[in-house]
Amino acid sequence: MTAPGTNTDAVLSRFSLNQETVKQWSLPELAEGCRKAGVTRVGLWRAPVQEYGVERAARLVREAGLTVTSLCRGGFLTATDPGARAAALDDNRAAIDEAAALGTSTLVLVSGGLPAGDRDLRGARERVAEALGELAPYARERGVRLAVEPLHPMFASDRCVVSTLGQALDIAERFPVEEVGVVVDTYHLWWDDTVAEGIRRAGAAGPDGGRIAAFQVADWVTPLPAGVLLGRGQLGDGSVDMRALRELVDAAGHTGPIEVEIFNEDLWARDGAEVLAEVVERYAAHVL
Amino acid sequence: MTAPGTNTDAVLSRFSLNQETVKQWSLPELAEGCRKAGVTRVGLWRAPVQEYGVERAARLVREAGLTVTSLCRGGFLTATDPGARAAALDDNRAAIDEAAALGTSTLVLVSGGLPAGDRDLRGARERVAEALGELAPYARERGVRLAVEPLHPMFASDRCVVSTLGQALDIAERFPVEEVGVVVDTYHLWWDDTVAEGIRRAGAAGPDGGRIAAFQVADWVTPLPAGVLLGRGQLGDGSVDMRALRELVDAAGHTGPIEVEIFNEDLWARDGAEVLAEVVERYAAHVL
Fold it and tell me: What are the Xylose isomerase-like TIM barrel domain coordinates in residue numbering (chains A, B) (predicted)?
């Protein structure tokens, strides 16, 4: 028997590196860093991909032999203003095109928060579902599944009105499983005592994890920084039992990628290769 | 018909001022400020009461004709270390004594977070329930009900492993309704689409709101400050539909106090009387 981390192929067999974890790296640096570390899967973000050029980025990852496990992110579908709503739908169609160009079947959607002065969470969630109805056929034609990501309730007002896996499934289940899935992210869901039930429910929707379109891991650490967005913890530094959640996701039939997505300014200030090596080591110790 | 706020008696008929909302006031200033504003109910905190002297504080509020609607807070019952656990139980018995001395029947309990290095939320919640079993008889003999307060999930690791009203009720329902209730605080629960169901369930447990031992209001505003503790918003400044939640609590049979509890450094930097006047005005406009 080998200690965790000593058999790199086995350790990395489902590992995917979300590029925001090593935001200090350009796309070519990401491709090169992954090659050196034996990492074959990445999750990408729209802004750096657009900056580099979508077709150019697609060629880069293809030539580097990388699989793109998800594109983050579309969404922000809660506007009440018709012009803003139309613009959001256009932007999401562009995101779908970008996902297709990059060869990933998973577009992560962050729903959006409450419009200014609005206090109607239920109405906002309903607008998300309506927008999915408009986008799902377009996505399906391009081989892309929309993945609704519940974000931690601390983001409910300003970023994502979908706060629990149960809510995400309530929305996703209005659509065929091939069209709309959900994202299970340990950082957002770890506190919820109904999450095991939600993961089972997601898995029961079909083969290969059913509605689980993506599984992302990060740890929960405190104190939270101002604005709370960049407070995610390195794997193993915090309170999340990531292994237990990974086992639930496995048991739900998800055999696909496990994507490490950590937004943390301390990690960004360090050498990217060093961060990636540490992430892989922590992943072996705390997720596998 | 009179505009909101013009009939002070009607506006204030259920109003209670939690002292942390005007933390800049000493206890005598609080008593005097409430007298001037026609406020007859206050929620108190242990630290300033202890500093002033419990008996002396009890006499002060009694002589000022103030009713103490709750004492914040006991709890922090998640320790695994036997010594720390015994100390926490002792401290909670002291808190029960203090509540009794102040003449309030409601001791608010914040459960406590995960011990260092611990990732077992379920185990921690179980320890909270066990501790309540030890404390409830002691409290009952002194006319005090333990009020389990679910805190927003952003506090789950470091402050309170009980994050939803449903979880709080799961724990409270192991005990007679006279012994253990729950706190409904709009700041902590507003995002949860199961909160209406939880409030109904709490109300169905008995007369006078059943398990609803306290109803507290504050608004949710962003961006959250570092540490997130002092980020509560003045009523009306944020995303919470406080009136809708108040109506649910009313419908559940709670006819008792509505306690305004806002931790906000900007409010603390202002004149206490001015803050209280603004709070009452906002309360009339956004809660009643």
Answer: 34-278
B154 vs chain A: nearest CA distance in angstroms? 6
Task: Report the share of chain A in percent with pLDDT over 70.
Answer: 98
Alpha-carbon distance A107 to A70, whole Å?
6
Mapping DSSP onto H, E and C, the string for chain A reads CCCCCCCHHHHCCCEEEEHHHHCCCCHHHHHHHHHHHCCCEEEEEHHHHHHHCHHHHHHHHHHCCCEEEEEEEEECCCCCCHHHHHHHHHHHHHHHHHHHHHCCCEEEEECECCCCCCCCHHHHHHHHHHHHHHHHHHHHHCCCEEEEECCCHHHCCCCECCCCHHHHHHHHCCCCCCCEEEEEEHHHHCCCCCHHHHHHHHHCCCCCCCCEEEEEECEECCCCCCCCCCEEECCCCCCCCHHHHHHHHHHCCCCCCEEECCCEHHHHCCCHHHHHHHHHHHHHHHCC
Q: How far apart are CA B147 and CA A278, in angstroms?
A: 44
The architecture CATH gives domain A17-286: Alpha-Beta Barrel (3.20)
CATH number of B8-286: 3.20.20.150
User: Cβ separation of A153 and B154 shorter than 8 Å?
Assistant: yes
How buried is B288 (Cβ within 10 angstroms: 0-12 exposed, 13-18 middle, 19+ buried)? Answer: middle
Smallest Cα distance from A244 to chain B, Å: 10
How would you write A220-249 as a 3-class SS string?
Answer: ECCCCCCCCCCEEECCCCCCCCHHHHHHHH
pLDDT at position B260:
98
The answer on pLDDT for B8 being more than 80 is no
| Inter-residue contact A210 to A177 (CB < 8 Å) | yes
Predicted confidence at residue B247, as pLDDT, reads 98
| pLDDT tens track for B120-169 | 999 999 999 999 999 999 999 999 999 999 999 999 999 999 999 999 99
Residue of A nearest to B156 (CA): A191
Nearest Cα of chain A lies from the Cα of B121 at a distance, in angstroms, of 8
Per-domain residue ranges of chain B: 8-286
Q: Chain A interface, mutation test: which of B224, B230, B232, B237, most A Cβ atoms within 10 Å? A: B224
Cβ atoms of residues B34 and B68 within 8 Å: no
Return the ∠ at Cα B167 (arms to B166 and B173), rounded to 5°: 85
